[in-house]
C-alpha cells in the first residue's frame, strides 16, 4: 500500500456567544484536519491545528511521504521528527504537523487490519474512559446566573467532575467565581481550575492557597508551559495536584517534568504531542513515573477518538486492583463549550453516559467524517498528490 494524496483542511465555525480564558477571548472554533488517501482506496483522517502545520505537511513531508508505505508508522514518525529536529521546528506547529499525519496513518492501519486502533496497540484495559466537563469559561454578563446554571447542568448530566478558568480577572474576582461554583455543585463533585499559564509562581501560589479551601482537585498550567522552576515552586507550596503539559511536544519536552517530579498530572494533547505514537510514549512514561495522565482534548471527533484509543491502553496509576476515576484511573477532558466541529463533523458525536465515554470499536479511529460539512466549514484547503 502507498500514499497517493495528502489533503489539509483548515476549519472554522463562528460562536454565537464569544468566550474568554486567561489569555484572551475567542469568537470562533477552529482546527486543522488531514486526509490521507492510499492506492488501496483506504482513507485515513488526522488532526493537528493551524495553517503553519499544513505548510510543514505539504512543503517538508509530502515530497517523500507520497509513495511511502502508510503502515510504516514508526519509520515515518522518525523521518518526520528528523526533518524538523535539525531545523529546530519540532516544537509548536511542527508537533501539530507530525500529530496530524501520525493519527491518519493509525486510522489507515486499523482499517487495513479491520481492527480498532486500541487493538493494534495491544488491546484495551478499559472499554470506557471517565471524563470531566470542560466549560465554565468567562462570558459577557455570565456571573453569577449563567455560570452557575452551566455548572448545575453538568451535575444533572452525570459528570463526576468539571473544570473552570482562573487568571483572566483580578484574583478576588476569580476566587469569588470558584467559591460560588463549589457552593452550587456541592462537596462531592470534583472541581479543578485552569490558569492557562496566566501567573508567575508567586501569584499562582497566592491564588492557589486561597482556592484550597474550595477543595480544588488540580491546578492546571499555573505558570508558563515550560517554566520548570515555576512548576517546582507551585507544586511544593500548594496542597492541590499540579497539572500541565497540553502545550508540550514529544517525550523530549516532557522529560524534565518527569525527571524532576514536578507534575502530578500530565495532560498531553494527541494533536500536538506527536499523534497516537507519541501520546502513547508520553502516557506510558508518565505512568512509569507515577504521574497521572489526564489528556487535554480540544478538537474534533478525530482527536477525541484518537485519545480514547490510547487512553484505553494506559494502566491505572499506580496499577491498583480497584482503581477509581480521578484517583488512579485516567480521566479525559470532555469539552462542553459550543462547537459545530466537535458535534457535527462525525454523524455520531461522542456522548457521555454516567461520567464515561465509550471507546470506539469500529476499525481504525472508528469515526466517520461528514465530508459535506468538512467542505462547508473549510476556510483553507491544500492538496499534495502524485
Ligand atoms: Mg488547559
Largest sheet: 9 strands, mixed
Q: What's the average pLDDT?
A: 97
Low-confidence stretches: none
H/E element order: EEEHHHHEHEHEHEHEHEHEHEHEHE
Beta-strand percentage?
A: 15-25%
Instruction: Give the CA-CA distance, first to last residue.
Output: 14 Å
Radius of gyration: 20 Å
The helix content is: 25-40%
Count of strand segments: 13
Small molecules held by this entry: magnesium ion
The count of helical stretches stands at 13
Structure classification: alpha/beta
Shape: globular
List strands and helices in order, with pairings.
Blueprint: E1 3-21, E2 24-38, E3 43-47, H1 51-65, H2 73-85, H3 93-113, H4 117-120, E4 128-134, H5 145-157, E5 161-165, H6 171-185, E6 190-194, H7 201-211, E7 216-220, H8 228-237, E8 241-244, H9 250-259, E9 265-266, H10 275-288, E10 292-293, H11 301-311, E11 331-335, H12 340-344, E12 356-358, H13 371-377, E13 378-385
Helix pairs in contact: 1-3, 2-3, 3-10, 5-6, 7-8, 9-10, 10-11
The structure holds magnesium ion.
Magnesium ion is lined by residues 194, 196, 220-221, 246, 296.
Descriptive report:
With 386 residues, the chain is an alpha/beta fold. Helices cover 39% and strands 22% of the residues. The protein contains 13 helices and 13 strands. It has helices spanning 51-65, 73-85, 93-113, 117-120, 145-157, 171-185, 201-211, 228-237, 250-259, 275-288, 301-311, 340-344, 371-377, and strands at 3-21, 24-38, 43-47, 128-134, 161-165, 190-194, 216-220, 241-244, 265-266, 292-293, 331-335, 356-358, 378-385. The strands form two sheets. Strands 4, 5, 6, 7, 8, 9, 10, 11 and 12 form a nine-stranded mixed beta sheet that branches. A four-stranded antiparallel beta sheet has the order 3-2-1-13. α5 (145-157) packs parallel to α6 (171-185), α7 (201-211) runs parallel beside α8 (228-237) and α10 (275-288) packs parallel to α11. It is globular, with a radius of gyration of 20 Å. 49% of the residues are buried. The model has no long low-confidence stretch (mean pLDDT 97). The chain binds magnesium ion.
Amino acid at each position: 500500500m502507498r500514499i497517493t494524496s495528502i489533503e489539509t483542511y483548515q476549519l472554522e465555525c463562528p460562536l454565537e456567544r464569544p468566550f474568554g480564558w486567561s489569555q484572551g477571548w475567542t469568537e470562533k472554533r477552529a482546527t486543522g484536519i488531514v486526509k490521507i488517501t492510499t492506492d488501496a482506496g483506504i482513507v485515513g483522517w488526522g488532526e493537528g491545528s493551524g495553517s503553519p502545520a499544513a505548510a510543514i505537511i505539504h512543503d517538508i513531508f509530502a515530497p517523500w511521504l507520497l509513495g511511502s508505505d502508510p503502515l510504516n508508522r514508526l519509520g515515518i514518525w522518525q523521518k518526520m521528527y528528523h526533518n524538523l529536529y535539525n531545523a529546530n521546528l519540532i516544537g509548536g506547529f511542527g508537533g501539530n504537523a507530525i500529530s496530524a499525519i501520525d493519527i491518519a496513518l493509525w486510522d489507515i492501519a486499523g482499517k487495513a487490519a479491520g481492527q480498532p486502533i486500541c487493538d493494534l496497540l495491544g488491546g484495551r484495559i478499559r472499554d470506557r474512559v471517565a471524563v470531566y466537563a470542560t466549560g465554565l469559561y468567562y462570558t459577557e454578563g455570565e456571573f453569577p446566573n449563567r455560570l452557575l446554571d452551566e455548572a448545575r447542568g453538568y451535575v444533572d448530566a452525570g459528570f463526576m467532575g468539571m473544570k473552570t478558568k482562573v487568571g483572566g480577572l483580578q484574583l478576588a474576582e476569580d476566587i469569588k467565581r470558584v467559591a460560588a461554583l463549589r457552593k452550587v455543585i456541592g462537596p462531592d463533585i470534583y472541581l479543578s481550575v485552569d490558569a492557562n499559564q496566566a501567573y508567575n509562581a508567586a501569584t499562582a501560589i497566592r491564588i492557589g492557597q486561597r482556592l484550597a479551601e474550595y477543595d480544588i482537585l488540580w491546578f492546571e498550567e499555573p505558570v508558563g508551559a515550560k517554566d520548570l522552576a515555576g512548576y517546582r515552586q507551585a507544586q511544593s507550596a500548594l496542597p492541590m495536584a499540579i497539572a500541565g503539559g497540553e502545550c508540550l511536544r514529544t517525550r523530549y519536552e516532557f522529560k524534565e517534568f518527569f525527571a524532576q517530579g514536578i507534575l502530578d498530572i500530565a495532560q498531553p494533547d494527541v494533536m500536538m504531542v506527536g499523534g497516537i505514537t507519541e501520546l502513547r510514549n508520553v502516557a506510558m512514561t508518565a505512568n512509569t513515573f507515577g504521574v497521572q495522565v489526564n489528556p487535554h482534548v480540544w478538537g474534533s471527533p478525530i482527536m477525541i477518538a484518537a485519545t480514547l484509543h490510547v487512553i484505553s491502553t494506559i494502566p491505572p496509576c499506580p496499577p491498583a486492583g480497584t482503581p477509581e476515576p480521578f484517583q488512579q484511573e485516567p480521566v479525559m477532558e470532555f469539552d462542553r463549550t459550543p462547537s459545530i466541529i466537535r458535534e457535527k463533523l462525525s454523524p455520531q458525536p461522542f456522548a457521555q453516559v454516567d461520567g464515561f465515554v465509550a471507546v470506539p470499536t469500529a476499525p481504525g479511529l472508528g469515526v466517520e467524517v461528514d465530508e459535506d460539512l468538512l467542505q462547508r466549514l473549510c476556510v483553507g484547503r491544500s492538496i499534495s498528490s502524485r
